[in-house]
Amino acid sequence: MDSIKYEAFITAAETGSLTATAEALGYTQPGITRMIRSLEEACGFTLLSRTKRGVAVTENGKAMLPYFRDIVRAQKNAWEMCMDIQGVLKGALTIGSYFSVSTMIMPEIFKTFSEKYPHIYLKLREGSNADMAQWLQEKSIDCCFAPRPQCDMEFDWIPVWSDEMVAWLPANHRHAHDVFPVKELEGEPFIITNPNQDTDIDRLLETYDVHPDIRLSTVDAYATWRMVEAGLGMSCNQRLIFKNWRGNVAAVPFDPPQYITLGITVPSLKEASPSTKKLIDYVVATYGRLD
What we know:
alpha/beta
């Protein structure tokens, strides 16, 4: 299949390694090298450059990546449609997921969806809102579960869940048995998770133009939770993310109350693969849709 050349380049771009690409696609490294050289000859310019650590995508290669992904996706969609018509849907989905969704919702979705469609391979990529927006623009994921992305590209977004943002406070905090006024975030000792990644925390602070006294930052919400428990400051997050956590942390509503909407985003619902549409239909049928 001609599309294997494009897939080889895409995989090499993502892994930065021809060896890893060969292993992932089931070819020899010289075979992968020949495919990419053939593609470069057809394009008339270099797509990959050699580095000490492997390979890197050239500027021209970066420009071509979305188009090559479209070619691979079109062939994949055509093949899946053939399988769907035959009544045995086969395919593969790369799904981006917000951290809270991946821990609290995705296991159940994956379990029941896989039972219903056992021949659809599911791959999960976890990331922040900023990661999700980038992956959508790159077309490196089929869909994602997250708040509505903030990016320049056009996409289709299906709202499904609503969740409350609450303040995380040390047990002895003055508002531990009350509500936390959003405006009091100004100057408050604060621990932030994944700063500057367009998280719900980033959006809350930006919306109200408040500037807490950020003492610490983490990449893991549970680490933030434990730091709040230790009395190092306050933080905030969705109720969904700490549903099963235990600890001496007061989770109190904001004043005014803060809610976020989580949903499914696809680059184009019209052009989505049969597997992607099956997943969306399943989620909407199971959890409903917010309109």
